[in-house]
Amino acid sequence: MSFPWIRTIATTALVAAATTACGPDQQQPASQSTPTPSTKAVVTTPTPTPTPTGVAELDAKALFAKAKAAILAADSVRLRGSVVEEGSKTAIDIHLTKTGGQGTFTVDGSPIGITVIGKTAYLQLSEKFIRAQGKAEKDTAAEINATVELLKGRWVKLTKKDSDFQDMIDLVTRETFVKNVFQPSGTLTKKPLTTVDGVASIGLFDGEGTLWVDSQTGRPVRIEAGTGGPAFGFSDYDRLKAPKAPAPDSVIDGKQMGL
């Protein structure tokens, strides 16, 4: 499946980066300890699997509906992969649960962390990200160091929709994730039963890319954006803990920054 968000995810992260340039008058959350989960793209080559079982006999439309319902029914799920856009690599690691979500968007090795609980989002930029952005904006070393030290280990609380970060917020919010991601670009057709990431899966092809679905449970296994395009794997169903809000003393009110 082509899924518009796959083609634009790097742009989303880069736009966010551009709006958070570091300087003495632009406070940004920074931390050397920002968690950077593994974000290796899923590149396993599918291999044929002989016998269809479970939901494999459903037609394409019914199987697609089953996959969407499976994501919403799961207590949790993880999505990992990466994409290269205009020479810039963005790796993502998203955790979705019924009560909240969190993700790390790593742009050329510099992570941006985001946690969403209900209608509140918390944004954190790593020290590496801040230094890279400060350098790009030609800030002085003293300005960059001051920003890093002032906001070390802190998060910015976003309490309203912000166009610069909303796409990332939507991607770590389960309902909007499903609504925005599961959008075929054309008529769905089924691909033969195949082993994908160790799971017997049925492919749903929309003319550009493929969503691979577990032939037993209907749960998404992997999504591929066309031949040679980015691939993202689904894993850790019902294994993740719901995210918690950062400690109050580590949070900066985004209203103070116009967010």
UniProtKB/TrEMBL annotation:
Alphabetical UniProt keywords: Signal
Gene3D superfamilies cross-referenced by the UniProt entry: 2.50.20.20
Domain of life: Bacteria
Chain residue ranges for the region called Disordered: 23-52
Signal peptide: 1-23
Full protein name: LppX_LprAFG lipoprotein
